[in-house]
Amino acid sequence: MMAAAAAASRGMKTLLLEKNRILGKKIYLTGNKRCNVTNSCDVDRLIENTPGNGVFLYSALYAFNQEDLIELFNNLGVPTKIEEEGRVFPVSERAADVVKALERHLYGNGAEVRLSSPVSGIDFKGGKVRGIYTCRGQFIRASSVVVATGGLSYPWTGSTGDGYRWAEEAGHRIIPLRPSLVAVETEDKWPAGLQGLSLDRVRTEAFTSGGRKIREELGGVLFTHFGLSGPSILTLSRFIYDFLEEKVLLKMDLMPDADVTDLDKNMVEYLSGNPNKLPKNILNRILPQRLIPVLLKKAGISSLKAANQISREERAGLVRAIKGMDISVAGVRPMEEAIVTAGGVSTREVNPSTMESRLVKGLFFVGEVLDVDALTGGFNLQIAFSTGYIAGMNCR
Ligand SMILES: Cc1cc2nc3c(=O)[nH]c(=O)nc-3n(C[C@H](O)[C@H](O)[C@H](O)COP(=O)(O)OP(=O)(O)OC[C@H]3O[C@@H](n4cnc5c(N)ncnc54)[C@H](O)[C@@H]3O)c2cc1C
Predict the structure, then answer these.
(1) Same domain, residue pair 282 and 357
(2) Alpha-carbon distance 234 to 39, whole Å?
(3) Which DSSP category does 373 fall into?
(4) Which of 127, 288, 307, 321 places its Cα 20 to 30 Å from the Cα of 64?
(5) Residue 181: enclosing H or E segment and its boundaries?
(6) What is the total count of domains within the chain?
(7) Do 132 and 192 fall within a single domain?
């Protein structure tokens, strides 16, 4: 949509072919239907938050950055607001408003749109784009074709990976596709017993089986029927994927703001102040009730023991469990459930200043189909918008 609007704004005859009956189907789902449209951080921070080839984006972001996007939406009647960690949302908190604004942008600039119109292939004989074929067998002549078919995640929104096939046919290398920002399955069964419980502030460290630290994240964790999800787990998934064959272990500090000595002191106070109570009726002041039996089991403390029967060693074990719950990772959820697809059209074969293929003249790749992927925070949509814009401005 952004590419078509930009091309049309330059007076080019522009046709957008969308296979769905509506435009921007995935956008309706974004940010829990509130659409985290971008991030207010500076360009360098955006690139830092793009572990998949962030540096490829410098030119695109200098041509069209987060401020430009916010201004564009403002002009299109969608004022935005900034929430924690710089996440930008429409004031209305409706993802639908973002799609409608993009539609106004498209039509306002004179682009033609055909819905329910899947493209089946691209003609690029002789190293130059000639046009596209529709699934109805029609050939449409074009001097430039922008492939904005998205990744492979949430395929029911339309992103079924067609663009990868066309890129390969054109001679492009596809960097292996993998799910990113996706929930994690655990070998341990206890997280499933806590299904639905979410904790706002947990420090989760990921290690290889050899003890090498892969990454740590501080933030929300959600227990699910298969293991773990929540913002910090989604981010970790991006980094642990490559180590899954080797085996990955997570260590969760459930009270990251308390140090071990202070926590132990507090524990002495809690337990000695309530000598005859069961620990589950004491610890619920500092921990969610559902977590307590799991922690007691980890610490080897019978849930029937009264506070005054808990030994010093058992208390130390409880503190250790709170500060470092070990969880063994079984794998990640499938691609269909991933927020983004990592991997894609190799950025080495795409000109970063235009998004044009270095192999086929007039062929452009933008958005998630590229081997570029970012963390959560509005970065992935900004990448799609910026790369789309720069391609639209360079079609000819
Ligand atoms: C649940 C969820 C929540 C998300 N939330 C956020 C968020 O809040 N902020 C953020 O920055 N990112 C978010 N993302 C990621 C973001 O939505 C994507 O990275 C972004 O939409 C990618 O844009 P794109 O244009 O490259 O691809 P897509 O948005 O996937 O669009 C590709 C389009 O191409 C069409 N298409 C595909 N093949 C063909 C064909 N052969 N012919 C014609 N049309 C075709 C598809 O139907 C689709 O409409 C979220 C993703 C998901 C799944």
Answers:
(1) no
(2) 18
(3) B
(4) 127
(5) none
(6) 2
(7) no
- For residue 344, the CA-to-ligand 1 centroid distance in Å is 14
Same domain, 25 and 138: yes
Q: What's the domain range around 187?
A: 183-333
Same domain, 145 and 258: no
| pLDDT in 10s for each residue of the chain, 396 residues | 999 999 999 999 999 999 999 999 999 999 999 999 999 999 999 999 999 999 999 999 999 999 999 999 999 999 999 999 999 999 999 999 999 999 999 999 999 999 999 999 999 988 999 999 999 999 999 999 999 999 999 999 999 999 999 999 999 999 999 999 999 999 999 999 999 999 999 999 999 999 999 999 999 999 999 999 999 999 999 999 999 999 999 999 999 999 999 999 999 998 899 889 998 898 888 899 999 999 999 999 998 999 899 999 999 999 999 999 999 999 999 999 999 999 999 999 999 999 999 999 999 999 999 999 999 999 999 999 999 999 999 999
Assign residue 39 the CATH number of its domain: 3.50.50.60
